[in-house]
Amino acid sequence: MSQQTLKVMQSRDLKRTTSKQNIGHTLGTVGIYAFLLFMALVVLFPFYWMVISSLKSLAEYRMSKPTFWPQTLLLSNYRDAFTTANLGRLFLNTAYVGIVSTLLSLFITIITAFAFARLDFKGKDLLFAALLGTMMIPGELFTITNYITVNSFGWTHTFTALIVPFLVSVFYIYLLRQNFLQIPNELYLAAKVDGTSDWKYLWKVMVPLALPTLISITILKMMGAWNSYIWPRLVANDDMHRLVTNGLRNAFKDTSGEVNYPVQMAAVALVSAPLFMVFIFLRKYIMAGVSRSGIKG
Amino acid sequence: MVESKQQWKAWLYLSPAIALLLVFTVWPIVNTVRMALLEDYSIAAASGGDRVFSLGIGNFVKVAQYQNFLTCLKNTALLCVATVPISTLLALLVAVALNSIKPLRKTLQTIFFLPYVTNSIAIGMVFAAMFNIVGSVGTRRPNIVTLGIINNVIEFFGGHYVNWINTGSSYWANMIVLIIYIVWNALPFKILILLGGLQSINKQYYEAAKVDSTPRWRVLWRITVPLLSPMIAYVVITGFIGGFKEYTSIVGIFGESLGPAHAPGRLNTMVGFIYEALEQYHQGRASAAALILFAIILVVTLINLQVSKKRVHY
Predict the structure, then answer these.
(1) Which chain B residue's Cα is nearest to A117?
(2) Coil, helix or strand for A119?
(3) What is the CATH number of the domain that holds B126?
(4) B-chain residue closest to A131, CA distance
(5) Based on the structure, what is the number of domains in chain B?
(6) Domain-wise residue ranges, chain A
(7) pLDDT at residue A297 above 50?
(8) CATH number for region A76-293
(9) What pLDDT score does A68 carry?
C-alpha cells in the first residue's frame, strides 16, 4: 500500500466520523429546542388559559369539551370582575401603600447605607454584622410580636400598620452599601475640598450614581406591596384598607366545584396585568435585583 | 473635634433605621423567646393584670403533641422534599439548554422568567381552575359539567380523569397539584441563578471537551455540574428555606380553608399553623412554633452547607 492511498483512507475515515458527529449534533440541537419549547409551553399555558377563560361566556366555559379559543369574546366579564371584587378601591389602596412605603423606605435605605459606606463611627463593623445576622431569621418570627405591637399602638385597620413595620430592609441597605462602596473615594475627597457637605454629596453625587440599584429596590418593594397577603390580612382586613391580593382571595372564596370561573379569571388577569406591564418595561432591573436577592417581593 | 463630630453625624443618619429596627426587629426576637418560654402565655391573660406566668417549655411540648402541628410539619416537609429536587433538576436542564443555543435565547429566557412576576394567590386560582371539575363529584350523585382542561388532556391521551381538588379528592391528588404549582413557581429564580453561573464558566473547558469529542451528557455531568456546584448549592438552600415557609401557594389553590371541601385544613403548613395560633390569641404557642420553624430552617441549612462543603468545587 502506498503512502498516498493510506492518506486518502485516513482522511475518508476522518470525514465519516465527523459527519456522524454532525448528525448527532444536529439531532441533539433539535432535542434541545424541543425540550425548551415544551417547557416554554408549560410555563405559558396557565397565562393563556387565564386570558381565554376570562373572555368566555359561562355557558361556553361549562361545555364538556373545553374550547381553546372563545367562540364569542365577552368583555363584560372584566366589568363584572371589577365590580364584584371592588377592584378600583383595592388598586387605590395598594398603590397608596406601595408608593408611600417605597418612598419612605428608599429615604431610610439611602441615609443608612451612606452612613455604613462613607462615615466612620465606633462599632460600625459590629453593627453591620448584627444587621446582616437578622436576615437569617424567618419573618414569621417577627410577625407575632409586631401584630401585638401594632395593636397596642392602635394601628389596626390603618395604612400605617401596613407601611411602618416594613420600612427598614436590611437586604436593601446591604445592596446599596455595596454599590456606594464602589464609588471612588477621590470623588468624595474632591467634594470635601470644594466644601460640599456630606448631605449634598450624598444626594447630588452618590444617589445619581447608584440609580440602577435604587430602581431595582423600588420595583421589588412595589411588587412586594402588590403581592403581600399574610400581614395585610392580619392587620387591615376591612373594606377601607384591604390590599389587592387579600381582596381578590376574599371576593372569590371558592376554588373548586361550581364556580363562575370566567369572572374570576378576569379578576385574576386584571390583578396580574400591572405586574406584567412593569416586567415588560423594566425587565433588566427586576432580573438584576432578583439575581442578587433571592427573595420574592 | 472632627472625629467626634463625625460620630455624632453618623448616628444621626442611622437613627431612623435603628429606631425602627429596635421596635420591629430586635424587640420581636426577644419577645418571641420570652412568650415561648412562659407557660400558656397569651396577651389576653397577660393584660388581665396580676396573673404570673411560670417559666417552662410547656408551649413547645404542647405544640409538639398537637396533632394539627404534626400534620402541618408533615405537609411542609413533604412539599420541600418533593419540590426542591424536581425544580432544581428541571431548572438545571433548562439553564444548560438555554446556554447552548443562540437563536431565540433571549425570548425564551424572558418567557421562563414570567412566573416570577406573578401574584402567587392569583395564579394559584388559575391552577385551581385548570384542575377543577365543574359540577359536583365525590357526592352520592355526581353531576359533572366539565372535567376541566387538565382532565381533558389526560382523557385525550387515553387516561382516566382524576378528582384533583374537589370534594372527595385524595390527599395525594391534592399534593400533586401543589407540587406542580410550587415547581412552576420556583423555576424562574433557579433558572436565572443557574444561567448566570453557566455564563461565567470558562469556555476553555468546553473547547477541550470538543477536541476530545466528549458526548454532551458527559460534558454536562463531568464539567458543567461540578463547575456550577456553588450555584446549585445556593438554589437548593434557598429552595429549602422557601419551601419551609410555604403557605400562600396553598391559599391560592385551596382558598383559606386550606384543603378540599370535605377536609378543610388538611394541607396546612408550619407558617399556616403559626398564623392560626396567632389568630386564636395563643401567642405563646405561636411563638414556640415560630422558634421550631427557625430551628428547622437553621438545621436544614447547616446540613446543606455541610453536604456542599464536601461536594462543591469552589
Answers:
(1) B10
(2) coil
(3) 1.10.3720.10
(4) B21
(5) 1
(6) 3-54, 76-293
(7) no
(8) 1.10.3720.10
(9) 87
